[in-house]
């Protein structure tokens, strides 16, 4: 009798594990977005039902700030998010094991991702004119990385003014409270339409790409689902390229794209692919110069599941 009771307990335990695994596999992948252009593949796929056609359930979870998004990643409320290499390395150093599965966008000859802009009427026409002057940044982020890489070997130093909130940074450079600021597109282009000057941008820099990241435990436990998402993602990028007007309507509905720059702005999306080792090396060297030690190597940071989804 005792052995029968033990067998029943064991069977119940195994069934509970099976149901738990099945439930985890069936629930949607929850991906966090901010109201920026790089969310377009997720919004377009959601609007057109592309993920469902490819057999992948995805829930797009909107956030209004990077702080809210990062907290959701830390607490496991979302499985993945849109991010960048600097933020991913900083998060991993703090114990949040994120991995990059694909680049979403990177600077292209016709479109930067980030620009260093000067305030209207301050007489700053060259990067060298910033020596010792106040520049608005957000420290330990891709924003500060872009500034430092632009200034390196050209300017000994500027007075960095910590402004985390992008809209406030935008306003401060337009009102001349700082002489310059690093802004993401399309806000940089909007600032220029309102009198700011573009001193330089991230075209030609390594490591500024926008990426899609997942928590490492999600990739391990749901690798087949993540690979299927990679196949669907490639199809989404292809359809967006073939349907620019339809994609623009989705973009303007879901992202904060100012009317003044709607004709000229479109995120420089990329096919599925990983950042290069050189991209990562440049970001790690910058962190080391700041005194932030990073032990991660290339294989620690990236995961090839999206590439496997393409049969690569």
Short description:
The chain is α/β, with parallel strands linked by helices. 46% of the residues lie in helices and 17% in strands.
List the helices and strands and how they pair.
Layout: H1 2-26, E1 29-33, H2 40-48, H3 50-53, E2 58-62, H4 66-75, E3 80-84, H5 85-93, E4 98-105, E5 114-118, E6 134-137, H6 142-151, E7 159-162, H7 166-174, E8 180-184, H8 187-193, E9 197-201, E10 210-215, H9 216-221, H10 223-242, H11 244-254, H12 277-289, H13 298-301, H14 305-309
Parallel strand pairs: 1-2, 1-3, 6-7, 6-8
Antiparallel strand pairs: 3-10, 4-10, 5-8, 5-9
Polypeptide structure, described:
This protein has 312 residues and is of the alpha/beta class. It has two domains: 24-106 and 208-309, Periplasmic binding protein-like II (D-Maltodextrin-Binding Protein, domain 2), CATH 3.40.190.10; 114-201, D-Maltodextrin-Binding Protein, domain 2. The chain contains 14 helices and ten strands. The protein has helices spanning 2-26, 40-48, 50-53, 66-75, 85-93, 142-151, 166-174, 187-193, 216-221, 223-242, 244-254, 277-289, 298-301, 305-309, and strands spanning 29-33, 58-62, 80-84, 98-105, 114-118, 134-137, 159-162, 180-184, 197-201, 210-215. It has a five-stranded mixed beta sheet, sandwiched between helices. Helix 2 packs across helix 10 and helix 2 crosses helix 11. The termini are far apart. Residues 9-24 have low confidence and may be disordered.
């Amino acid at each position: 009798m005792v052995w029968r009771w033990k067998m029943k307990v064991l069977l119940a335990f195994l069934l509970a594990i099976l149901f738990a695994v099945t439930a985890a596999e069936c629930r949607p992948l929850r991906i966090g977005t901010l109201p920026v252009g790089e969310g377009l593949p997720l919004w377009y796929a959601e609007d057109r039902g592309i993920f469902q056609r490819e057999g992948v359930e995805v829930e797009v979870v909107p956030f209004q700030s990077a702080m809210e998004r990062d907290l959701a990643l830390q607490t496991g409320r979302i499985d993945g998010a849109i991010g960048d290499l600097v933020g991913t390395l900083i998060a991993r150093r703090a114990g949040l094991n994120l991995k990059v599965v694909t680049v979403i966008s990177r600077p292209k000859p016709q479109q930067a991702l980030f620009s260093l802009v000067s305030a209207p009427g301050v007489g700053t026409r060259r990067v060298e004119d910033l020596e010792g002057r106040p520049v608005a940044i957000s420290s330990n982020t891709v924003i500060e990385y872009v500034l430092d890489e632009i200034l390196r070997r050209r300017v000994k130093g500027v007075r960095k003014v910590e402004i985390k909130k992008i809209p406030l940074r935008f306003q401060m450079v337009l009102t001349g409270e700082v002489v310059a600021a690093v802004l993401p597109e399309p806000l940089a282009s909007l600032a220029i339409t309102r009198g700011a000057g573009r001193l330089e941008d991230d075209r030609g820099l390594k490591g500024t790409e926008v990426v899609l990241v997942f928590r490492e435990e999600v990739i391990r436990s749901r690798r087949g689902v993540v690979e299927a998402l990679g196949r669907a993602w490639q199809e989404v990028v292809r359809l967006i390229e073939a349907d620019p007007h339809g994609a623009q309507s989705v973009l303007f509905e879901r992202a904060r794209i100012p009317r003044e720059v709607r004709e000229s702005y479109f995120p420089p999306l990329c096919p599925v692919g990983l950042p290069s080792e050189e991209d990562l090396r440049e970001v790690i060297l910058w962190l080391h110069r700041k005194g932030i030690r990073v032990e991660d190597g290339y294989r620690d940071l990236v995961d090839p599941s999206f590439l496997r989804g393409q049969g690569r």
